[in-house]
Amino acid sequence: MADDVEGAAVSPGIASSPWSGRRATLVILALNVGVFLAMCTFTSFDNFLRTSTATAIEWGASYGPDTLTGQPWRLLTSSFLHFGFFHLASNMLVLWLLGSQVERMYGTWRFVLIYMVSAVGAGCLSLLAVPTGAGAGASGAIYGLAGALLVFAITEPWPVVRVLLTRTGIGGLIYASISFVLGIGGGAQVANHLGGLFSGFLIGYFCRRDLRSRNRLEKMATWAWVVSLLVGLFVVVTYAPFDIKGNYKLALAVHELDQGRARAALAICEEFLARNPRSGSGILYRGLSRLALKEDEAALADINAAIKHGAELKAALGARMGAAFDLGYYRQVISDVSELLELGGDVNCIYMRAMACAQLHDFDEAFADARKLTRVFSRKTDGAILSAEIWRAQGRLKEALTEIGEALQADPDLKRALHLKVVLLAEQGSSEGGTSLQESLDLLGRLGRDRSQPRQFVYYAMIRLGLGDYEGAVKDADVLLAQEDAWQSGKATYPLIIKLLALQALHREDAQRSLALQVKKKLSEHCWPYPVLSYLLGWSSLSDLTGESNNLSRQTETDFYLAVSDFEGGRKTAAREKLDKLVEHGNLTYMEYEVGRLLRARLLKDSSGTGK
């Protein structure tokens, strides 16, 4: 036994002190914990037990559509992020068990190299398996440590291994093995673990060769192999992914969709499906692209087909819920939400079910969901905002404002609550008079000082349009129209319609002609609601527009914009008919519904004032 201990003591790269072999392990462990606590602190403490995918991506998780299109650094940063406390705790336990063992065997800087390369290798293989997925966690790097530990056990004499392989290391290997077996079935997870294990084994092998080598040339050759491996991994992810089934195209499609370029995403999905016609994921993303283009019927057909072809059910049901709501299939929405909640759906599901119930005038069930948000999910502000929207759907503005007051008391800067307060005060002021209207305009002015999110100015411009503040509507619409990408993606269409209607009300014919020229030159995407814009510019007929307004949501928008046009043109009876229809049957979640209510309140007040 004395010989064994002596052999262990002189084995190359083995730390002489237990603590000297754990410094990097402790630093990496502290970094993982620190990043998790910072994420929970600066986002929402709701992420403590279960971190949302969106939050993880925002903080640097590996997300195929971003990682594969110019952000390869996510392969490394993702290894320091986790999807909740229990995910973090289990990984940190194994990191301590294996890390302290591997660091003592290889030395600090080689340990760090093994950890980092294994994290990247795990992410690469995971992306090859599921290119559109989001991944985070230290498990890939930890499996790399397991691979390096296996290399040590294979390349070192057994007497040395027997002495140095402690119960800690054995426990880590057992835990990792059990975790691997339990993870079989999840494609990305298994790929991540295998990628980490293989990378760690390979880098561990080169590190052992370097430690044993006495020849300078041999050392240089060893590290040349390591550098080649690192460059190869980078090239695979950044420039030349192994696109065996065209999966890279699917990741590109999702990237385009995330960037708001739905038409480009649809074209790429079609290319992918030409090679993989039965791919559930491909069909689903084609449906999502069509949904973004407001081609709701085609989107719904795609989503149903995607479910039949094995698309991820939770994502597919979430997409179908949105398409069904836009089409007015509220019973379908309620059914999908029930299924989604069984699969662990988020609070957005509750909101959509409540609004579907409100659309069906089943207000008791809608309020039950609002209470569920407050009591079951502990989302008091969300519950208050939802209650306010339900009260507003019944025309109960005072009760709605009371709920908004409670939400703002909890979070004074909550944008959704502030936006809702603006339109509620505007509607109340338009119908009842008093100070509410001025209060609404003052709040709208304060919100307009923040230019960090230009898309919000469409909402502000629409409210001003509904209130008859046409100069303000033009200025707010111009904020978004100054963004070049809005013209390319088609997002400029809404502010163009608002600006055109405001210019018509101001009788600025030269400005209208100038706007029409801009549309012809700059607006490259003619998706919905382009038919509305085309009609208002006189380029198409009312029958053309009616043919395009073929579902509930499109009809909501069409009724609003045509009602504004009628109102400005003095055709108040026609405007009243459209607004009555919008308030009774329109999509409650649309801006046009909200502003249509306050325009109707103005119209009713004017009518009562003139005795009509």
The number of helices is 34
| Average pLDDT number | 85
* Shape annotation: elongated
DSSP summary, beta strand count: 2
Unreliable stretches (pLDDT < 50, length at least 5) are: 1-20
Strand content: under 5%
Strand order of the largest sheet: 1-2
Proportion of residues in helical segments: over 70%
Q: Which sheet architecture does the biggest sheet show?
A: 2 strands, antiparallel
Q: For the terminal residues, how far apart are their CA atoms?
A: 107 Å
Radius of gyration: 30 Å
Give the structural class: mainly alpha
Can you tell me about this structure?
This protein has 612 residues and is an all-alpha fold. 76% of the residues lie in helices and 1% in strands. The protein contains 34 helices and 2 strands. The model is unreliable at 1-20 (pLDDT under 50).
Q: What is the element layout, followed by pairings?
A:
Elements: H1 2-10, H2 23-42, H3 53-58, E1 62-63, H4 64-67, H5 74-77, H6 85-106, H7 108-129, E2 134-135, H8 139-155, H9 158-164, H10 167-183, H11 187-212, H12 216-238, H13 247-258, H14 262-275, H15 280-292, H16 296-308, H17 313-327, H18 330-342, H19 347-359, H20 363-375, H21 380-393, H22 397-410, H23 415-432, H24 436-447, H25 456-467, H26 470-481, H27 484-489, H28 493-505, H29 509-522, H30 530-536, H31 542-548, H32 552-568, H33 572-585, H34 591-610
Antiparallel strand pairs: 1-2
